[in-house]
Design a protein that fits this description.
about 70 residues, mainly beta, SH3 type barrels, two-stranded antiparallel sheet
Length: about 70
């Protein structure tokens, strides 16, 4: 049996979403052929927002990755 692995950013990693919006990774979704999206949460004034992002839509400011495997 072949085991595949992918690197994913660790939940809790800090991210830069826009020039002045910073948040943290709060969830990870892996679908199909290793298609990874990340839920990121951030404070907007007094309210908390969260949205799913493709890795190309944010910059990780504290790079920590976990390796996960699939059988």
């Amino acid at each position: 049996m072949t085991k595949n692995t992918i690197d994913v950013y660790k939940i809790g990693s800090q991210v830069k979403l826009t020039n002045d919006v910073y948040g943290v990774i709060t969830g990870i979704s892996i679908r199909g052929d290793h298609h990874v999206t990340y839920e990121c949460g951030w404070w907007n004034g007094r309210s908390y927002d969260a949205k799913w992002f493709h890795p190309s839509e944010f910059e990780v400011t504290l790079i920590e990755k976990n390796k996960i495997g699939f059988a």
